[in-house]
Amino acid sequence: MGDVLTSFPKKVPPLRSVSEVRTRRRANRGTVGLTTYRGAEPGLAGVRNAAAHGAQTITFYTGLLDRLSDDAAKGVIVHELAHAWLNEHVSPRSSRRREAEADQLARSWGYGRYLVALDAETTPV
Ligand SMILES: [Zn+2]
Predict the structure, then answer these.
(1) Which segments of 11-123 does DSSP mark as H helices, in order?
(2) CA 83 – ligand 1 centroid, Å
(3) Which of 20, 28, 55, 90 would suit a FRET pair with 39, their CA atoms being 20 to 30 Å apart?
């Protein structure tokens, strides 16, 4: 996680709404990472704080994460960060299309090799 965050591109608006990053041992239906979002409070648009942006929790399931190589595990991390960024800066909804969008965004941040490693070690669902 530290490796990834210290190389986060400086030109990208930062993530302010991630309120918690946690780990769980047991995986949920093969999920390695999950980003959940609680919407912003109405009437606070433009206010730069967590309440205005909503709050996000990123959960990593270590039972599966620990079986991946370091690079593939970083692929999971950058994918979840991209979801969080899209939730905060684009729109908070989830769909299958958002999966490809998250990967594309993480690639634009320079993290493509981690996603390649992740793809090589996992089967897309
Ligand atoms: Zn995803």
Answers:
(1) 50-53, 62-65, 70-89, 96-108, 112-121
(2) 7
(3) 28
For 34, the token pair is: 């999950």
Tokens, residue 122: 């996992």
| pTM > 0.90 | no
The rounded Å distance from CA 80 to ligand 1 centre is 6
Distance between CA 6 and CA 35 in Å, rounded? 20
Q: What is the pLDDT of residues 87-123, one digit of tens each?
A: 888 876 656 678 889 999 999 999 999 999 998 998 7
Residue 27 alpha carbon to ligand 1 centre in Å: 14
Domain of residue 112, residue span: 2-121
Rg (CA), the chain: 14
Compute, in angstroms, the gap from residue 50 CA to the centroid of ligand 1.
22
Q: Is 69 helix (H, G, I), strand (E, B) or coil?
A: coil
Residue 36 contacts residue 59 (beta carbons within 8 Å): yes
